[in-house]
Specification:
Chain lengths: 436, 829
C-alpha cells in the first residue's frame, strides 16, 4: 500500500513485459531475480491495475503480466493468491480476448509446479500465434467462481467508501479537436518526427505503473479537524515566591507531662462525685493556663453526663473550651440525650452565654425539655420542671440566643398546656410581645 | 566535639541539680534530667550547632530507647547537619518515626482500654512528624501528597499545640493554593480569620490600619495580661460559685426559687459574661504573636487572600484586597505583593499594566525574583500573542532557574525555589500555540512530575501528537506538503494521462513501534496517534475522577449537606457555631454576564470567600465541560485517523449525548459519527446524522454561527471604569483566532456537510443529486481539494470525462508535475 513503485522499477517491468518472444518462464525468472520479494506485491498490484485498462498493454504484454501475477504466490496453494478473484473475472469475461481467457484457464487448471513450468516454456507470442479458439471451452464466471472460490456469488466485503473508487489515472489525450484518439496516426513512428498529438506509449505505461494507486480516485469525504483547545485561564503558570516553611522541632520530646496527669486524675474524680472547691479551682486554673490541656484531660463524651451531674461548672468550662473540637457534636449529643435536670439546663444556659451554640442543638434540647415536662407523672416535680424550663426559655429568648420563630409553635403549645403555672403564662406573654 | 557534648550533658545535669524542684515532678529524677537535656538540645538546635545537638539527642536516645520524638528530632537535626542535601532520606526517617509511634500507640491502647483516647494518642503524637513530612513534600513541589497528609491534621487541629497548628494552617493553605484546591483554601482562610481574629479590610487603608492596630494590640497581650485575664476569670468563677445558684447546684435539694432568679440574672448578664470570658481566640493570637510579628502576619494573610481570590477568579475582590495590601507593604519588601498585583492586571487582561508592574520589579537583582519575573513576563507576551518574545523570556527564566541548582550550601528552600518545571510547561504551551508540536511535547512531558494528575496535561500531550500527525511530522508516508493535490502529467499526445495523487489519502500509517523518528530511550517521547489515544484516555479518566462530573452538567448548585446533630462526619465544623457553608445568597445580585452588580461587596471574609468559591466552582464546571467535549471530539477524530470506526463512532455518540454540548462540537460529533457509520457500511444511520442539518432535502442550514465560538473566548468580566480608562485589551475573538485554533467558519462547516452529503449520494449512485450538492459545496469551498475531487468523481461516474478533467484542472491548490524518470543515464526507448 504505502510502498511505491519507482519509475525505474516500472521501466524495468515494462521492459520485461515486452519480452514476448522469450519463454515466459525466463521472463519470470528475470522478474524474481530483479526484484526483492518485498517489492513484488506492489509491482503485481500495479500490473493488476494497469491490466484493467484494456487499451494500454499489448496482447503479449498482457499474457506476461498475467503470468507474473499468477506466479507471484506460486509457493502457496492457488487460493492464497490475492489476485485469484481478478484472474477469474478476466477468464470469465466475455469481452476479453479469447486467448487471454484460455491462457488463464490453462494456468489455473495446472496444479503442480512442474507442469506449470512446462506450460510456461513457450513464449507469449507463440501462444497467441498457435491459439485455436475451437479447442477451448470457455466457461462462465459463476462456474469458475464455484470451482475456485467455492462460491457462486460475487459477494465480497464491500467498503462503502473504497470499493466505489475509479482509477486515479485519467486519459487526457492531447490531440487536435475532432481527431480520433485511437488513430495510429498519432503513434510516434520509430525514427519519425514528433508532431502535434503524437505520443509514445511506453512513457505512459511506465508512468501509469508508477502512479496507479489501489485506492483510486473516490469521492472525498471531508473529515474536519477538531478545534484546538485555547490556553485556559490560569493554565499558563504565573509564578510568585513561595512562603518559606521550615522544619519544626518536636517540643513534645521528653516534655514534662505531670501537670496534665494531675488534671486527668481530677477530671476522673469529678465524674464520680463533686470536687471540693480547692480541687475545682486547680482544674479551672490548669485548663486556663494551657488552652490545649482540655483535649488531653481525659474527658470523653461517655463521661460527660456524670460530669454534668456532679460538677456542672467544670462541665461548662470544659465544653466552652472544646467548642472548636471536631468531637463537640458528640458531647452535644450526650447533653441532648441525657436525662433533663437542673444541672443539665444550668450547663446549657451558661454555655449559651459563653459561646454561640448551634441552633439545631438548642432546638433539639428545648424539645427534649418540653417532652420531659410532659412525661413526668409526679405533679409536684412536673411543676418544678415546667417553671425551670420556662425561665430557661425566657433567658434564651431575652438574650437572643435563639430565634423565636424556630420554636414558636412548639413553645406556645407548651405554654398553653401548662397555663396554670405562672411562669408559663409569663413566657406566653413574652412570646406575644415578640410576635408584635 | 564529644568532649564538648559530655561537658554539655554534665552542665545540663548540673542545671537540673541546681533546681531540685523540677525533679520532684512526675516519676522522679530521670524525667527532669531528660527534660533538661531536651531543652539543651533545643538550644543547640536553635543556635545551629547541629553536631552538639545531635550528641545530646543520641544520649537521650540511650535513655529513652525508640522514643519517637527523640528519633524525630534526630532526623531533623541530621538533615540540617548534612546541609539539607538529602530530603529523601529525611522522608524515610520520618516515615519510620511515624511507624514507631503507631506501634507504641497501639500497644498502649491495649494496656489501658479505659484510658481516654485523645489523651494517650497525643503522648506519642505524630503531628509534628507529619507536618515536617508535608514540609519536605511541599518543598519538593509534591503539593497533592502534602495536602493529603495535612488534611487529617487540619481536621483535628484544635487539640494541637498553637504553633504547630499555625504552621499546619499556613502550609495547608500554600499547598492547597498550589494544587490548586479552592475548597480547602477557602476553608482554611475562614478558619484563620475566625481563629486568629482578623477583620475584613475591604475599604482600604483606614480599615487596614485599624485592624493592624487591633492585631498589634492583641498580639501585644503579653503572657502577664493573659494570666491577668485568666485570673479574672478565675475570680469570676469563684465569685459565681459563691452566688446562690451554684450553691444550690452543689446541694442535693433544689431550692429552685433562688435558682430561678439566678437563671434570670444569669440571662441578663449574658453579654457581660461573653465579654469577660476569654475565648480561645485570644490565646491563639498570643501564640501567634510569639512567633511572628503581627503586622507581618497580617500582610501574609492578606497575600493569601489575594492568591485565593485570584485563583477563584474573583477579580473584583482581589483588586480591593491588593489595594489594601499594597498600602500595608509600603516601604517594605513587597515582591510578592507586586507580583500578585501584576497577576491581577494580567488576569483582567490589562497586559500593559501588568508589564509595567513587572518592570518595576525588574530592578531587583535576586536570582529568585528574576526567574519569576522572566516567566511572568513570558506569560504576558504569550497572551498578547507575541510568541517569539515569550519564548525568549521563558528561556531566560529557565537559565535563571538553573542557577539555583548550583547554589551552595543548599537550603531547604533551594528545592522549592526551583520552579523550572512550571516554566517548562509554559514553554510547551507556547510551542504548541505557535505550531511546534515536537518541541511542545518535549517540554510538556518534562512537567509530568508536577502535572501528571491533571486532565489538561494529558490533553495537551495528545494535542501535540495530533498536531504532529496533521503536519505530517510523524507519518512515515508522504511527508511533503499534503495540502496540495499533485497531478502527474504522464506521457504526451494521445497517450497523455493525468494521475491524481492524493497525499492525504495515500499515506500509510506506520504502527508506532516502527516509528524511528523519536526512538525511546533518549528521554524523548515517541509521538504517535496511538500515544494520543492513550493520553486522551488518561485525560478523560482524570476528568471523571476529579469528581463533580455528575454535577458538571447540571445547572443546579450542589446539594447542601444536612447538618444533623448526630453527624459525626469528617466535616470539621458542623456544630461549631455559624454555618460557614451558607451560600453567598443575597450578596448582591449577579447580572447576566456574571458580574456582581453590588459594588459594595463588603461582606465578611467568610461571605466573600464562599462567594468566590461558588464562582470558582461554576468556572471549573464550565472548564470541565469544555475539556470533556474537546477530549471526546479528539478521541473520535483519532480513532477515525487510526481507521477504527467502531471506537470513533462510540466517542462521537458519547459526545452527542453530552448535555449542553456546544454547537460546534455537536456538529463535529455528527460528521464524525456519519463517517464512522459509512466506514461500517451503515449508510442509512450515517444519513440520519447528516440530515440533522438538512432543510427540505437539498438545503443545509448553517450548523452554528460565530456566536457559538464563545467557548473559545476567554470570558472576562471587566470593571466598567477600566474600559473607560482604556487600558484594557478585551480579548475579542477574531477570525484569525478561529483559524489558529482550526475552527471551521460556519459557511465552511456547511459546505463540508454539502460535500459529505454529495459523497454519500454519489456512492449510492444518485449522481444527479450528488452533482447538485457538490455544486453547492464548491460555492462555499471553491478551493477544497476534497470537494473538487468529489466533483471529478461524480462527473466521471456520469460519463462526463471532459467536465471531470476540466474540474481537475481548475483546482487552484494543485501542482502539475511532469512525470519523468531516467534509468542510469539511458532514456526509455
Amino acid at each position: 500500500m504505502g510502498m511505491v513503485v519507482s519509475g525505474e522499477e516500472a521501466y524495468k517491468l515494462l521492459k520485461m513485459m515486452k519480452q514476448g518472444d522469450l519463454p515466459i518462464h525466463d521472463v519470470l525468472s528475470d522478474f524474481n531475480s530483479s526484484f526483492p520479494p518485498s517489492h513484488r506485491f506492489s509491482l503485481c498490484t500495479s500490473l493488476f491495475l494497469i491490466l484493467q485498462d484494456k487499451l494500454v498493454l499489448t496482447g503479449t504484454e498482457r499474457l506476461v503480466a498475467l503470468s507474473v501475477i499468477h506466479q507471484s504466490h506460486a509457493s502457496q496453494p492457488i487460493n492464497a493468491n490475492p489476485f485469484l478473484r481478478f484472474l477469474i473475472s478476466i477468464a470469465g469475461d466475455d469481452n476479453a480476448e479469447k486467448f487471454e481467457r484460455a491462457f488463464i484457464l490453462q494456468l489455473l487448471e495446472l496444479s503442480d509446479s512442474s507442469s506449470i513450468k512446462e506450460f510456461l516454456k513457450q513464449s507469449a507470442t507463440d501462444y497467441i500465434k498457435s491459439f485455436d479458439p475451437s479447442l477451448h471451452v470457455l466457461p462462465q464466471v459463476e462456474e469458475l467462481r464455484q470451482k475456485y472460490l467455492n462460491t457462486a456469488h460475487s459477494e465480497t466485503f464491500k467498503c462503502f467508501f473504497k470499493d466505489n473508487a475509479v482509477k486515479n489515472v485519467l486519459a487526457d489525450p492531447d490531440v487536435p479537436l475532432g481527431c480520433d484518439v485511437n488513430s495510429s496516426e498519432f503513434d510516434l513512428q520509430p525514427g519519425g518526427k514528433a508532431k502535434l498529438g503524437s505520443g509514445e506509449r511506453d512513457e505512459t505505461v511506465v508512468g501509469m505503473l508508477a502512479n496507479l494507486s489501489l485506492e483510486g480516485l473516490g469521492p472525498q469525504w471531508i473529515r474536519p479537524r477538531p478545534p484546538r483547545l485555547p490556553i485556559q485561564d490560569g493554565e499558563l503558570v504565573w509564578l510568585i515566591p513561595d512562603n518559606n516553611h521550615e522544619l519544626l522541632w518536636d517540643h513534645g520530646m521528653c516534655a514534662d507531662t505531670s501537670r496534665g496527669a494531675a488534671v486527668r486524675d481530677l477530671i476522673a474524680k469529678a465524674a464520680k462525685g463533686p470536687l471540693v472547691p480547692a480541687q475545682q479551682e486547680k482544674v479551672m486554673m490548669e485548663l486556663a493556663n494551657d488552652p490545649k490541656l482540655v483535649y488531653h484531660c481525659g474527658l470523653t463524651p461517655l463521661k460527660l453526663a456524670d460530669l454534668v451531674e456532679n460538677n456542672p461548672l467544670i462541665a461548662v468550662e470544659v465544653l466552652t473550651k472544646l467548642i472548636n473540637s471536631p468531637e463537640i457534636a458528640e458531647y452535644f449529643t450526650v447533653l441532648v440525650t441525657m436525662e433533663m435536670s437542673l444541672h443539665s439546663m444550668e450547663v446549657v444556659n451558661r454555655l449559651t452565654q459563653a459561646v454561640k451554640l448551634p441552633s439545631e442543638f438548642l432546638r433539639l434540647y428545648i424539645s427534649n425539655c418540653i417532652a420531659s415536662c410532659e412525661n413526668i407523672k409526679d405533679k409536684y416535680m412536673q411543676n418544678r420542671l415546667v417553671r425551670l424550663v420556662c425561665v430557661f426559655l425566657q433567658s434564651l429568648i431575652r438574650n437572643n440566643h435563639i430565634d423565636v420563630k424556630e420554636i414558636l409553635i412548639e413553645v406556645q403549645a407548651f405554654c398553653i398546656n401548662f397555663s396554670r403555672i405562672r411562669e408559663a403564662a409569663g413566657l406566653f406573654r413574652l412570646l406575644k410581645t415578640m410576635e408584635g | 566535639m564529644e568532649s564538648a557534648a559530655r561537658e554539655l550533658s554534665t552542665a545540663s545535669t548540673a542545671a537540673v541539680m541546681q533546681n531540685p524542684a523540677a525533679a520532684e515532678d512526675g516519676s522522679g529524677f530521670d524525667v527532669s534530667v531528660t527534660s533538661a537535656m531536651a531543652k539543651e538540645a533545643l538550644a543547640r538546635f536553635q543556635s545551629r550547632k547541629y553536631g552538639e545537638c545531635l550528641e545530646l539527642l543520641y544520649q537521650l536516645l540511650q535513655k529513652k530507647e525508640d522514643d519517637p520524638k527523640v528519633l524525630h528530632n534526630i532526623a531533623i537535626a541530621e538533615f540540617f547537619r548534612d546541609d539539607c542535601s538529602d530530603p529523601k532520606k529525611l522522608l524515610e526517617a520520618l516515615e519510620k518515626v511515624k511507624k514507631k509511634s503507631d506501634q507504641l500507640t497501639r500497644s498502649s491502647l491495649e494496656q489501658t482500654e479505659t484510658a481516654s483516647i485523645s489523651g494517650t494518642k497525643d503522648e506519642f503524637g505524630v503531628s509534628v512528624a507529619t507536618l515536617n513530612t508535608a514540609v519536605i513534600l511541599f518543598h519538593l513541589h509534591e503539593y497533592g501528597k502534602a495536602l493529603s497528609l495535612l488534611e487529617p491534621l487540619y481536621n483535628n487541629i484544635e487539640p494541637l499545640d498553637e504553633t504547630v497548628a499555625l504552621h499546619i494552617c499556613l502550609l495547608i493553605l500554600d499547598a492547597a493554593l498550589a494544587c490548586p484546591d479552592a475548597k480547602i483554601s477557602a476553608d482554611v482562610l475562614i478558619y484563620l480569620e475566625k481563629a486568629f481574629g482578623f477583620s475584613q479590610s475591604d475599604s482600604g487603608n483606614i480599615a487596614l490600619q485599624q485592624s493592624a492596630n487591633l492585631v498589634e494590640n492583641s498580639s501585644a497581650v503579653s503572657n502577664s495580661t493573659l494570666i491577668n485575664d485568666s485570673s479574672n476569670l478565675e475570680s469570676s468563677l469563684v465569685a459565681s460559685s459563691e452566688n446562690p445558684l451554684s450553691r444550690t447546684l452543689s446541694e442535693e435539694t433544689l431550692d429552685y426559687e433562688t435558682m430561678l432568679s439566678a437563671l434570670d440574672i444569669g440571662g441578663q448578664d449574658a453579654s457581660r459574661t461573653t465579654q469577660r470570658l476569654p475565648s480561645s481566640n485570644d490565646s491563639s493570637i498570643s501564640a501567634m504573636g510569639k512567633s511572628v510579628s503581627s503586622v507581618d502576619f497580617k500582610v501574609k494573610f492578606q497575600l493569601y487572600k489575594v492568591q485565593f481570590l485570584l485563583l477563584t477568579g474573583n477579580l473584583k475582590g482581589a483588586k480591593r484586597e491588593v489595594k489594601g495590601t499594597m498600602n500595608a507593604v509600603r516601604g517594605r519588601d513587597s515582591s510578592t505583593a507586586l507580583l500578585l498585583k501584576a497577576q491581577l492586571e494580567y488576569a483582567r487582561g490589562n497586559f500593559r499594566k501588568a508589564m509595567k508592574l513587572l518592570m518595576a520589579l525588574g530592578n531587583r537583582t535576586e536570582a529568585g525574583i528574576s526567574s519569576l519575573f522572566f516567566n511572568n513576563l513570558g506569560c504576558v507576551y504569550q497572551q498578547m500573542r507575541k510568541y517569539h518574545s515569550s519564548s525568549v523570556l521563558f528561556a531566560r527564566a529557565l537559565s535563571s532557574f538553573s542557577s539555583f541548582r548550583k547554589e551552595k550550601p543548599l537550603k531547604l528552600s533551594s528545592f522549592s525555589q526551583d520552579k523550572s518545571l512550571y516554566t517548562i510547561y509554559n514553554c510547551g504551551l507556547q510551542h504548541l500555540a505557535s505550531g511546534k508540536p515536537i518541541l511542545a511535547a518535549q517540554c510538556i512531558q518534562k512537567a509530568h512530575p508536577i502535572f501528571f494528575n491533571r486532565p489538561i496535561f494529558w490533553f495537551r500531550l495528545a494535542e501535540c501528537c495530533i498536531m504532529a500527525w496533521q503536519k505530517g511530522i510523524i507519518s512515515m508516508g508522504d511527508t511533503s506538503d499534503r495540502s496540495a493535490l499533485k497531478l502527474y502529467v504522464i506521457g504526451k499526445g494521445k497517450w497523455r494521462r493525468i494521475a491524481a495523487r492524493n497525499g492525504l489519502r495515500d499515506r500509510y500509517h506506520e504502527p508506532a513501534q516502527e516509528n524511528e523518528l523519536y526512538p525511546a530511550g533518549d528521554g524523548h517521547l515517541k509521538l504517535s496517534l496511538e500515544f494520543a489515544r492513550v493520553c486522551l484516555l488518561n485525560s478523560l479518566h482524570l476528568l471523571n475522577r476529579s469528581g463533580s462530573s455528575s454535577s458538571e452538567d447540571s445547572g443546579l448548585p450542589p446539594e447542601p449537606d444536612i447538618d444533623g446533630l448526630e453527624s459525626t462526619g469528617s466535616n470539621i465544623r458542623i456544630l461549631t457555631g455559624e454555618d460557614n457553608r451558607s451560600p453567598a445568597v443575597g450578596l448582591g445580585q449577579v447580572t447576566a454576564n456574571g458580574d456582581v452588580k453590588e459594588q459594595k461587596l463588603l461582606g465578611t471574609c467568610q461571605e466573600i470567600t464562599n462567594y468566590s468559591l461558588s464562582m470558582y466552582e461554576d468556572t471549573l464546571k464550565r472548564k470541565m465541560r469544555a475539556l470533556r467535549q474537546a477530549i471526546l471530539t479528539n478521541q473520535a477524530y483519532v480513532e477515525l485517523e487510526l481507521e477504527n470506526p467502531m471506537d470513533a463512532l462510540s466517542h462521537a455518540l458519547s459526545l452527542l449525548q453530552l448535555p449542553n454540548c456546544s454547537k460546534v462540537h455537536t456538529y463535529l460529533g455528527h460528521v464524525y459519527a456519519a463517517e464512522a457509520l459509512c466506514l461500517l457500511n451503515r449508510v442509512d444511520e450515517a444519513a440520519a446524522h447528516l440530515s440533522v442539518y438538512l432543510v427540505g432535502g437539498k438545503e443545509v442550514e448553517l450548523p452554528y454561527s460565530e456566536e457559538d465560538f464563545e467557548q473559545w473566548q476567554t470570558a472576562k468580566v471587566f470593571d466598567s471604569e477600566d474600559i473607560n480608562v482604556g487600558h484594557s485589551t478585551t480579548s475579542n475573538f477574531s477570525l484569525e483566532d478561529a483559524w489558529i485554533l482550526q475552527i471551521l467558519k460556519p459557511e465552511e462547516a456547511r459546505a463540508t456537510l454539502y460535500v459529505n452529503l454529495a459523497v454519500k449520494s454519489a456512492l449510492e449512485g444518485e449522481y444527479e443529486l450528488a452533482l447538485e450538492l457538490i455544486t453547492r459545496a464548491l460555492a462555499g469551498l471553491p478551493t477544497s481539494r476534497e470537494a473538487t475531487l468529489t466533483a471529478v468523481y461524480i462527473n466521471l461516474m456520469m460519463g462526463r470525462a471532459q467536465e471531470a478533467l476540466s474540474k481537475l484542472k481548475q483546482l487552484t491548490n494543485v501542482r502539475f508535475l511532469p512525470y519523468s524518470f531516467t534509468v542510469h543515464g539511458s532514456t526509455s526507448s
